Amino acid sequence: MRPLGANMLSTVLSNALAAWLLTEWLWPLEAVTDTAHIGVFVSFVALCFGLHLLRVPIWLSALGKMVYIWWALSRLFSFASIAALPHALWRDSTVWLLGDRSSMPGDALRTFVFFLLLWAVSFLLHWLIVRRNRWFVPYALTVGYIAVLDTFLPYSGNGAILRLVALGFFAFVWLQGEELQAKAPSFRIGKWRAAALFIPAVALAVGYAGPKLPPQWPDPVAFIRSYHAQPEETNDDSPSPGVAKVGYGQNDSRLGGPFIADDAVVFIAKDQGRHYWRVETKDIYTGKGWEAFQSEQVQSFGNGELIRYEWWSDKVKTVEQTAEITRQDQAFHLVYPLGLQQVQTSDHIVYRMHMATEKIYTSDQNANALPIRQYMLTYMEPDFPIEALRAAPPVQDPPFLKRYTQLPETLPQRVRELAKQITDGKETVYDKVKAIEQYFHLNGYTYETTDVAVPGPDQDYVDQFLFETKQGYCDNFSTSMAVLVRTLGIPARWVKGYTSGRLVGEQDGQSVYEVRNNDAHSWVEVYFEGIGWVPFEPTQGFVNPYAFSLAASNPEEPEHSCSRKNGKRRVCRSINYLSNLRRHRGSIGGRSWRMFGRGKWG
Description:
Layout: H1 8-26, H2 29-32, H3 38-53, H4 58-77, H5 84-98, H6 107-131, H7 136-152, H8 158-183, H9 189-209, H10 220-228, E1 265-271, E2 277-282, E3 284-285, E4 290-291, E5 298-301, E6 317-331, E7 340-344, E8 350-354, E9 359-363, E10 372-385, H11 386-391, H12 398-404, H13 413-422, H14 429-442, E11 446-447, H15 461-469, E12 471-472, H16 474-487, E13 492-498, E14 502-507, E15 510-516, E16 520-528, E17 532-536, E18 547-549, E19 562-565, E20 569-572, H17 575-578
Parallel strand pairs: 10-18, 11-12
Antiparallel strand pairs: 1-6, 1-15, 2-13, 3-4, 5-8, 6-10, 7-10, 8-9, 13-16, 14-15, 16-17, 19-20
Helix pairs in contact: 1-3, 1-6, 1-7, 3-4, 3-6, 4-6, 5-6, 7-8, 8-9, 13-16, 14-16, 15-16
């Protein structure tokens, strides 16, 4: 058989065939993984095969690809300078290699490695299809790949299969024509190819437009699981197959879907109070999930140093508390309570707060990542005054509002209308926020971890939860509340970390809690002018652990308030919440401070 690349036209077509096959592997990633900006990777594939087609020298081709990779990473992750990219890659590599390699490396490193993988695969496909004329194996693997994704994952491969069938017919006809012309040079190959392609083209068009039977095997996953299940696993109460494992994760750009419970202990806390454990905040809602504001600004502090951070104004009463954390894994960041003041450990560790997310990393003096296993925390436990919150005026700072009321242009209008409906008649910012928080508890929304929908390509994550499914876990509730609050022009951000965990005993006058992957959680913080960031808990079945109090002279009892007892424990009067309490299995996906708690962390 004459090689497919025997002439210029055949060479162009064979390179196009190889590039087409590789891009068919890329398009589904946006639906079945958290990969975004697929067009950047498709363009890189086109660049690779274009350089092969032009027979550019190897050194020049490699240089061109590296320049493209640098440009793409700078665009995706907003690196301020050329030197910032290798620094970020080195940092992510160090954190992953020295830490728990069962966790995912950083986004920049994963993207860089993915580019290198595409580089290698494009070279392999060029060698197989263009040089060796071995196209069948890559073609068959691609068809099998699409079929598996369409069968077992929330991805529709109808369009991809149609394209691949058309591509297969075209490749077969072209190769057969090459062989016939090699045997008989006078053979009129043009007319033969036109006729040979016309018949399958008509068949494909009729098949695509005509009526089709519905799927005869709609849920193969359930069948396979039931076929292999043990008898005790086949009862009606067995959970649906999850697509993720519960716990703290770094990537929240695509939320949704069920998860698998994980009861592994993450850390043990000896604490005087009871609160949520923060890890980071995010403030860019994309319609599918959350992304962090891009900033390289870092605030560093040493062991035992007071953090230069003013969480709230003096309107918020606080009580100094201490806690001791013992990690059960190798971690390179802190879990810490709201109001953190000081961190102490026996190691010589520098703490680096990433301003954009409020995530605190641990490193040595040279900014090399260091794991931390045990440390002491000093923090101020807040008691938020409801009267001061109700008296807080709307925020007037335009840059601050732009960042913390950001919403995608694709947000459906009915989400904004629902927020107005919920807060109709509410005069103060606090009353509007509380009305939205209470809305989820009073309108039929249910806590669910297994039967949880994933938004389609044209669906908004919040809109789907609010109006269609009305069931989900903490990510659904917290994201929806943050978006509803933002539609009213009120600054809000998304916070992720852990709940207080499971009380397992007492030691040295402190309560001992085990915090597990199942305790991973997300909630909302809303900014009040002149006060600071205040946490709210919209998730069904959960109680806000922070104290909110009215003046003693006011006889009205707040919807949720907590009081101190014996200087240690809280007694919470949230009977309407406690009746619905269940064990949580959560998900998890600049300038100096001018006002209390605002903290432009980036």
